[in-house]
């Protein structure tokens, strides 16, 4: 399982399901497909018996523009976010409200695959389709996209 590596519990925005993190700065190496498979095979687990599960969804975060973009207008890697302003995700996301125990919960902030397509972040085939004015960044280390 290689998902939920970074989320609302983290101190910064990072890749939800990184394929690799060995080239990330040391403080941001939280786990990846590569490191998981390496750990299992180093423990003598047969590689042919490993099945990799990865995410088909993403999380939304409230990142102030001043923290989200470089002076050149490019998306910053691992920016801090304001967890108290969690944006609501797609139409399948749990909105803010009381849970079954009466405890106030924030919005989940989750965008399922089809929610990413509906919001025009992705094309139906999974390729990036950022709408005009929406910035995105492909991370060559984790092999993930940030919007």
Can you characterise this structure?
This protein is mostly loops and 147 residues long. The protein has a domain at 57-146. The protein has helices spanning 33-42, 65-68, 113-118, and strands at 57-59, 97-98, 104-105, 110-112, 137-139, 144-146. The strands form 3 sheets. A two-stranded antiparallel ribbon has the order 1-4. Strand 2 and strand 3 form a beta hairpin. The longest helix has 10 residues, at 33-42. The chain is globular and about 45 Å long. The two termini are 23 Å apart.
Q: What structural class should be given to the helix and strand makeup?
A: little secondary structure
Number of strands: 6
Using the alpha-carbon principal axes, give the shape: globular
Q: How large a portion of the residues is in β-strands, by DSSP E? A: 5-15%
User: Residue share in helices?
Assistant: 10-25%
Low-confidence stretches: none
The residue-averaged pLDDT reads 89
Distance between the termini: 23 Å
Give the C-alpha Rg. 17 Å
Q: Say what oligomer this is.
A: single chain
What are the salient characteristics of this protein?
147 residues; two-stranded antiparallel ribbon; 6 strands; little secondary structure; 14% helix; 3 helices; single chain
List the helices and strands and how they pair.
Blueprint: H1 33-42, E1 57-59, H2 65-68, E2 97-98, E3 104-105, E4 110-112, H3 113-118, E5 137-139, E6 144-146
Gist of the model:
This protein is 14% helix and 11% strand. The chain is largely without helices or strands and 147 residues long.
């Amino acid at each position: 399982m290689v998902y939920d590596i970074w989320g609302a519990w983290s101190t910064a925005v990072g890749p939800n399901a990184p394929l690799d993190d060995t080239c990330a700065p040391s403080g941001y190496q939280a786990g990846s497909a590569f490191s998981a498979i390496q750990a299992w095979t180093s423990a003598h687990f047969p590689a042919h018996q490993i099945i990799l599960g990865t995410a088909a969804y993403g999380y939304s975060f409230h990142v102030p523009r001043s923290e989200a973009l470089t002076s050149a207008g490019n998306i910053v890697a691992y920016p801090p976010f304001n967890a108290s302003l969690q944006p609501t995700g797609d139409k399948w996301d749990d909105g803010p409200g009381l849970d079954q125990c009466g405890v106030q919960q924030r919005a989940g902030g989750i965008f399922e695959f089809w929610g990413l397509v509906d919001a025009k972040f992705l094309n139906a085939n999974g390729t990036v389709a950022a709408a005009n004015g929406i910035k995105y960044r492909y991370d060559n280390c984790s092999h993930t996209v940030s919007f």
